[in-house]
C-alpha cells in the first residue's frame, strides 16, 4: 500500500498508509512512525471525505461576472494557461516584473508542491511574500535569545519531567504531541488566556490576562534567580548578560505581576519553584505571539528553560531541512522585492500589484481586515489567478481559477515543524486537477522559457533535496519516513551564547531585555480568534461542515450588555461587523470574547477576519497582530 503524509499546516505531519478499495480511499496512521503512532486526528480520519468531495473543481474557470460573485465559464486547460501566460507577459512588459506577486503559504506543505512554483516567479524576477501571518514574531524573538527558533526534538521529552504548553491548545492542534507527553508520563501544565481543552486536561492551569505573558515569565525568572533555583554552572558557562538581567528583574514587584496577570502570588511562586525543580520544557504556541505584545512575550518565556539548564529547552519551529533547491531562488537575476504578507491590501491599493498568483492559500478567508482587502480587489485592475482544489472565497475574486489535485494524487515529501522526520507521499489515485508543479511547467512552456530547472520532474527535485540534506531516497522509499539526524549545534547569537541581554534586539532598536507594555483599544472587549478543532484555518469547512460560529463571552460581560445565552448578537468595530449567536462561558475571562477564525464567507456569510486588525508587529518582522483586536458586542433581538 502506498505511503502518504498529511500535508496540512499542522504540527504533527502524520505519516499514513493509504489504499484505494472499491473506488474509495482508505487511510490510517502509520503504526511504525514514532510520532503518528498508528492513529490520526479527527480531521485526518476524514480525509477520504475531502478527497472524494463532489465540490472539487474539475475544469479551469474564467470569470465572466462581477469580481467576488461569479459567474464563471468553464474553459480548457490550453485556453486557461494561455490566458494566464499572456496576461503575465503583458503585465511584466507594461508594469515591470515587480508588479507581479506570487502569494502562497502552507495550505499544502509538500516540498515540491509548496516550493517548485516559486522557481518560475524567481526566474521572472517577480515580487514574493515576506511571510508574517503565522509564527514570525516568535521566530525573531527566539533568534534574539538563541540565534534560532529550532528547539528540542520532541522525542527527547522522554528524558524530561514537565512540559508547559504556553499559549497553545495542543489537544486540538498538536494531538500527537500531547499524546507523546502523556506516553512519556510528563506532568503537563498550560498557560493561556482561555480555559481550553488542553487546559482542562492539564495537571495545572495558569490563566493569565492578555498581553501579560511577558510579565509572568519575568516574574518567574525573578523568583528562580532570587531563590537560587537556577543552574549556576550552566548559566555561568552558557549565558550572556545574566548579571544585567538579574538586576533588571530585581526591581519587579510580585504584587504588580500578580495584579497584572490575574494570578495570585502563590501561583507565581508555585510555577517558579516547581518549574525549576522539574527543569521544565516549554512548548511555545503561535497564538499569543500574533499580537502587539507577542515578540516580547516569547523573548521572556525563552529565558526560562535556559535558567534551569537546558541548551534548547523549548519547542517552537523545527525547520529541519533546507529546501532552497526546490524553490530555486538561484534563478533570479536581481534581488527580490518582498511584500509583507499582512500588507497585501495596502500594496493593491497603492497600485503596486497588477498580477496576483495564489496557490496553497486562501487569503480572502485567512488575512485580517477582510473588508479592506475585498474592497481593494474589487476596485483595482489587478489580474488574479488562483490554483486550488475548491472554489474558495479567494477563487471567487479571481479572473482565472485552475483546479488543483490533492496530495493523494502526486509524488512529494514533507517535513514537520514539530518533529524531525521527513515522510514520503506516493500517489494513490488520480481524480481531478493538476499539481502545482505540473501547472508551473505548463506556464513555463506557454511563456516560451527553456530553462531546464523549470522542467525537472517531481522525483528529480525530491532526490536532489534529499541528497543535499544527507538523506537517502532508497531508505525513504522502503520505510515511508526517515529521521533527520541532529548535528551538534551551538547558539547563533553575536556572543555565541544564550543571550538574556540580547545584542540582536538592541541592533533592531529594542531594549536589551523583554519589556511589558499595556495595550488598549477603542472598544472594551479583546477579541481572540484561535483555530477550531475541525478546521485548519479555512480548510475543511466546505467538506466536513463542522464549524462553531458562536461568540464565546464571559457571563459577567454578557450580563452588562443584557445578553443571554443563545441570543443573537452583533460583534463590531471600525473594520466591520458580524452577526452570530452568543454562548456564555466561564472559560473565557472577563474583558475577552472569542470567535473561531477563518470560516468560509461564501458558506457562513461572514468571517471573524472582518474584525481583525491588519496592524503588524514592526519590530518583529512585521508579524501579524490578529489578537490585538478590540470589539464591542450588542444584542440584536434577532433582527
Strand content of the residues, in percent? 15-25%
Provide a count of the helices.
26
- Form type: globular
Placed side by side, the strands forming the largest sheet appear as 5-4-17-16-15-6-7-14
According to DSSP, the number of beta strands is 29
Which key terms come to mind for this protein?
single chain; 639 residues; alpha/beta; 8-stranded mixed beta sheet; 6-stranded mixed beta barrel; 26 helices; 29 strands
Structural write-up:
The protein has about 650 residues and is α/β, with parallel strands linked by helices. About 35% of the residues lie in helices and about 20% in strands. It is built from 26 helices and 29 strands. The strands form 7 sheets. Strands 5-4-17-16-15-6-7-14 form an 8-stranded mixed sheet. Helix 5 (about 135-145) runs parallel beside helix 14 (about 295-305), helix 9 (about 215-225) packs antiparallel against helix 12 and helix 9 (about 215-225) crosses helix 13. It is globular. The model has no long low-confidence stretch (mean pLDDT about 95).
In short:
The mean pLDDT is 97.
Task: Please write out the topology.
Elements: E1 3-5, E2 15-21, E3 24-29, H1 42-45, H2 47-51, E4 61-66, E5 70-74, H3 77-95, E6 100-104, H4 111-123, E7 127-130, H5 136-146, E8 162-166, H6 170-173, H7 175-183, E9 187-192, H8 197-200, E10 204-207, H9 213-226, H10 232-238, E11 239-240, H11 242-250, H12 254-261, H13 265-278, E12 281-284, H14 294-307, E13 314-315, H15 324-327, E14 338-340, H16 344-349, E15 355-359, H17 363-366, H18 370-379, E16 383-388, H19 393-396, E17 400-403, E18 412-414, E19 421-425, H20 436-446, H21 458-468, H22 473-479, E20 481-483, E21 498-499, H23 503-507, E22 525-528, H24 541-544, E23 551-553, H25 555-560, E24 568-573, E25 576-584, E26 592-594, H26 601-604, E27 616-617, E28 623-624, E29 629-635
Parallel strand pairs: 6-7, 6-15, 7-14, 8-9, 8-12, 9-10, 11-21, 12-13, 15-16, 16-17, 22-26, 23-25
Antiparallel strand pairs: 1-2, 2-3, 4-5, 4-17, 18-19, 19-20, 22-29, 23-26, 24-25, 24-29, 27-28
Amino acid at each position: 500500500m502506498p505511503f502518504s503524509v498529511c500535508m496540512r499546516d499542522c504540527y504533527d505531519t502524520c505519516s499514513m498508509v493509504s489504499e484505494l478499495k472499491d473506488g474509495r480511499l482508505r487511510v490510517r496512521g502509520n503504526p511504525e512512525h514514532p510520532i503518528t503512532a498508528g492513529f490520526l486526528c479527527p480531521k485526518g480520519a476524514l480525509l477520504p471525505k475531502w478527497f472524494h468531495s463532489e465540490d472539487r473543481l474539475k475544469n479551469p474557470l474564467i470569470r465572466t461576472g462581477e469580481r467576488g460573485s461569479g459567474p464563471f465559464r468553464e474553459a480548457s486547460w490550453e485556453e486557461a494557461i494561455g490566458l494566464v501566460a499572456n496576461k503575465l507577459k503583458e503585465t511584466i512588459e507594461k508594469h515591470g516584473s515587480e508588479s507581479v506577486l506570487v502569494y502562497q503559504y502552507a495550505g499544502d506543505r509538500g516540498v515540491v508542491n509548496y516550493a517548485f512554483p516559486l522557481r518560475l516567479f524567481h526566474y521572472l524576477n517577480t515580487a514574493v511574500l515576506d511571510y508574517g501571518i503565522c509564527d514570525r514574531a516568535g521566530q525573531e524573538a527566539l533568534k534574539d535569545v538563541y540565534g534560532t527558533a529550532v528547539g528540542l526534538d520532541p522525542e527527547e521529552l522522554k528524558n524530561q519531567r514537565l512540559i508547559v504548553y504556553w499559549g497553545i491548545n495542543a489537544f486540538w492542534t498538536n494531538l500527537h504531541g500531547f499524546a507523546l507527553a502523556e506516553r512519556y508520563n510528563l506532568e503537563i501544565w498550560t498557560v493561556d488566556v482561555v480555559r481550553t481543552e488542553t487546559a482542562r486536561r492539564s495537571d495545572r492551569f495558569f490563566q493569565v490576562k492578555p498581553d501579560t505573558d511577558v510579565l509572568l515569565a519575568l516574574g518567574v525568572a525573578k523568583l528562580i534567580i532570587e531563590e537560587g533555583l537556577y543552574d549556576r554552572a550552566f548559566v555561568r558557562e552558557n549565558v550572556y548578560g545574566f548579571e544585567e538581567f538579574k538586576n533588571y528583574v530585581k526591581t519587579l514587584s510580585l504584587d504588580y505581576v500578580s495584579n497584572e496577570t490575574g494570578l495570585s502570588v502563590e501561583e507565581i511562586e508555585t510555577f517558579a519553584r516547581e518549574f525549576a525543580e522539574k527543569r521544565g520544557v516549554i512548548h511555545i504556541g503561535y497564538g499569543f505571539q500574533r499580537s502587539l505584545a507577542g515578540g516580547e512575550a516569547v523573548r521572556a518565556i525563552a529565558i526560562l528553560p535556559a535558567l534551569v539548564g537546558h541548551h534548547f529547552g523549548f519547542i517552537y519551529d523545527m525547520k529541519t531541512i533546507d529546501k532552497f533547491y526546490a524553490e530555486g531562488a538561484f534563478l533570479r537575476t536581481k534581488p527580490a522585492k518582498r511584500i509583507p504578507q499582512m500588507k497585501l491590501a495596502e500594496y493593491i491599493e497603492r497600485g503596486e500589484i497588477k498580477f496576483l498568483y495564489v496557490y496553497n492559500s486562501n487569503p480572502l478567508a485567512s488575512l485580517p481586515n477582510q473588508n479592506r482587502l475585498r474592497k481593494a480587489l474589487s476596485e483595482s485592475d489587478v489580474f488574479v489567478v488562483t490554483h486550488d482544489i475548491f472554489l474558495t472565497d479567494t477563487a471567487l475574486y479571481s479572473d482565472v481559477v485552475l483546479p488543483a489535485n490533492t496530495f493523494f494524487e502526486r509524488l512529494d515529501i514533507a517535513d514537520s515543524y514539530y518533529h524531525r522526520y521527513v515522510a514520503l507521499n506516493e500517489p494513490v489515485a488520480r481524480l481531478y486537477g493538476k499539481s502545482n508543479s505540473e501547472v508551473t511547467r505548463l506556464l513555463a512552456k506557454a511563456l516560451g522559457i527553456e530553462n531546464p530547472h523549470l522542467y525537472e520532474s517531481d522525483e528529480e527535485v525530491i532526490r536532489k533535496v534529499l541528497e543535499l540534506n544527507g538523506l537517502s531516497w532508497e531508505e525513504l522509499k522502503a520505510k515511508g519516513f526517515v529521521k533527520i539526524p541532529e548535528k551538534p549545534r551551538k547558539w547563533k547569537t553575536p556572543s555565541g551564547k544564550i543571550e538574556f541581554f540580547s545584542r540582536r534586539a538592541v541592533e533592531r532598536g529594542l531594549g536589551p531585555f523583554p519589556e511589558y507594555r499595556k495595550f488598549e483599544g477603542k472598544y472594551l472587549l479583546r477579541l481572540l480568534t484561535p483555530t477550531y478543532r475541525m478546521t485548519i484555518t479555512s480548510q475543511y469547512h466546505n467538506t466536513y461542515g463542522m464549524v462553531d460560529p458562536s461568540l464565546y463571552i464571559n457571563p459577567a460581560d454578557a450580563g452588562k450588555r443584557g445578553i443571554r445565552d443563545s441570543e443573537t448578537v452583533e460583534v463590531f468595530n471600525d473594520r466591520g461587523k458580524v452577526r452570530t449567536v452568543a454562548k456564555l462561558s466561564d472559560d473565557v475571562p472577563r474583558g475577552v470574547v472569542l470567535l473561531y477564525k477563518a470560516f468560509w464567507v461564501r458558506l457562513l456569510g461572514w468571517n471573524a477576519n472582518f474584525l481583525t486588525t491588519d496592524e503588524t508587529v514592526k519590530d518583529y518582522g512585521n508579524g501579524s497582530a490578529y489578537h490585538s483586536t478590540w470589539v464591542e458586542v450588542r444584542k440584536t433581538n434577532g433582527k
